[in-house]
Here is the input.
Amino acid sequence: MPRTWVVIPMFNEGEVISSVIESVIANFDRVVAVDDGSSDDSAELARSAGAWVIRHPVNLGQGASLQTGFDFALADPQMTEVVTFDADGQHSIEDARQMVEKLRKEGLDVVIGSRFLDDRTEMSGLKRLVLRMATWYMRFTSGMALTDAHNGLRVIARGLLERIELNQNRMAHASELIDLMGKQRVKWAEHPTHIVYTEYSKAKGQSVLNSINILVELLFK
Here is the structure.
């Protein structure tokens, strides 16, 4: 039987992590939360909500957390795909469900979320422009005609996960992942996703400044 693991990187997400994991577990019963050196009670709350928890003793970054989660999921011989899901509550679990179904039905290696395939996601004009610029750059370097290169909601099939390894520990991991997929000539598709930018998620780094930081990392990586 197909088996999905959901990988959730987290850093000081005690305010929301319980509700996020509970919503995920209601749909996917295998969840690993990677606590990236949190100073709050994120790990305890995630475990109480039903997730497996792996802890980094120090903060390494989201890329490192994802790779730790990938390695953990790969240790399960029955795992067939992994969903990457943010801890701050901005992703839709229904989008994740539809993306898993799409991957299986179409025999894809990866399904990548896109904020730009429908009009559900609200963002400022400047943020939209910066994300578009990053996507254009990634199209040029990877050869993948994406509409959204830095969406954290993805579904990755086991076969592809076994062939890639992230070395960029921080935000540049998203660009690295696209580059690796481009080199592998993967079977891929995008899926429309609704990203909810709450005051909480903005405070955690989902701001225009963070989008500009991503663009700078792309240009000088």
In short: The radius of gyration is 16 Å. The chain is about 45% helix and 15% strand. The first strand starts at residue 4 and ends at 10. Residues 14 and 42 are 4 Å apart (CA to CA).
